[in-house]
Design goal:
The protein has helices spanning 5-27, 33-48, 63-70, 82-91, 129-139, 176-185; strands at 54-57, 75-79, 96-99, 112-118, 140-151, 155-162, 165-173, 189-196, 206-212. It is of the alpha/beta class and 217 residues long. The strands form two sheets. A seven-stranded mixed sheet has the order 3-2-1-4-5-9-8, with helices on both faces. Strands 6-7 form a two-stranded antiparallel sheet.
Length: 217
C-alpha cells in the first residue's frame, strides 16, 4: 500500500533541514518557563503513577527526550525522519532513538508510562488525528499520561522555506477545544490545558494539553 503523502512530505522536509534545525534549537532553546513547567508536571505525574518508559514521539534531534531524562524519566525517541534520528543518535548516544510514525507505532499495547508529542502532531491532517489519538491510547499503560504541545488556530499553512532550505510541508494550527475533544473520544481524560501568548519568533498562541489514560478498576 502506498504511503500517505503527508508522511512522505514530512519525512522529506525534516530530512532536508535536520542538521540546521538542530543547530538553530541549540542556539535558541525555544521552551519558555511555562513550557518547562508543563514538562516538569508531566514527569512528576508519570513517576507518581509508577513510572515506566516515556516515548517522545516526533522527537526530532532529541532535545526533549534528553530533557525528559534529566527530569528522572526513562525516555526514548521516535521520529519519522531518518536524518533527524541520525542527529539525535550522534548528539545523545546513550539514549534510544528509532524511526517510526505515530500513526502506526511499533510499540506493544500498554507498554509506555507516558507519551510526549511536542509540536509533532502539527503536520498530521486534522481528519487523521483520531487515528493518532487511538494509537496513543493503545500504547499507554493504564494510568499513563500524554503531553501535547501545538500552535493555536484553525488553519493549514504551507511551508515553503525553513532553516535555510526550500521545503514543501503543511503545518496545522489547532484548536485546544478540538484536541481535548479528540483526546476524550480516544478514551483519555484531559487533566490540564495551558494557553500562553506568543514569545520570540512565535506568531500565535501556543497550547499544551495534559491527559491521562484511566487506570484499571
Amino acid at each position: 500500500m502506498a504511503e500517505a503523502s503527508y508522511l512522505s512530505a514530512t519525512r522529506a522536509a525534516y530530512d532536508t533541514v535536520a542538521v540546521d534545525y538542530a543547530k538553530r534549537l541549540r542556539a535558541e532553546p525555544p521552551e519558555t518557563p511555562l513550557d518547562l513547567a508543563m514538562l516538569a508536571a508531566f514527569a512528576k505525574l508519570v513517576q507518581s503513577a509508577g513510572g515506566g518508559p516515556v516515548a517522545d514521539l516526533g522527537c526530532g534531534p532529541g532535545r526533549i527526550t534528553a530533557h525528559l531524562r534529566s527530569l528522572g524519566l526513562t525516555a526514548f525517541g521516535i521520529d519519522l525522519s531518518p536524518a533527524m534520528v541520525a542527529v539525535a543518535r550522534r548528539t545523545y548516544p546513550d539514549l534510544r532513538f528509532n524511526e517510526g510514525s505515530m500513526a502506526a507505532l511499533d510499540l506493544a499495547d500498554a507498554s509506555v508510562g507516558g507519551i510526549v508529542a511536542w509540536y509533532s502532531i502539527i503536520h498530521i491532517p486534522p481528519e487523521l488525528l483520531p487515528v493518532v489519538f487511538t494509537e496513543f491510547h493503545r500504547v499507554l499503560a493504564p494510568g499513563g499520561h500524554l503531553l501535547l504541545a501545538f500552535q493555536v488556530g484553525n488553519e493549514r499553512r504551507h511551508v515553503e522555506h525553513g532553516y535555510g532550505h526550500s521545503l514543501s510541508l503543511d503545518a496545522y494550527r489547532l484548536s485546544p477545544d478540538h484536541i481535548a475533544e479528540l483526546s476524550s473520544e480516544a478514551g483519555l481524560v484531559v487533566q490540564a490545558r495551558l494557553l500562553r501568548e506568543p514569545e520570540g519568533r512565535e506568531k500565535v498562541q501556543q497550547a499544551c494539553l495534559l491527559a491521562r489514560k484511566p487506570g484499571m478498576s
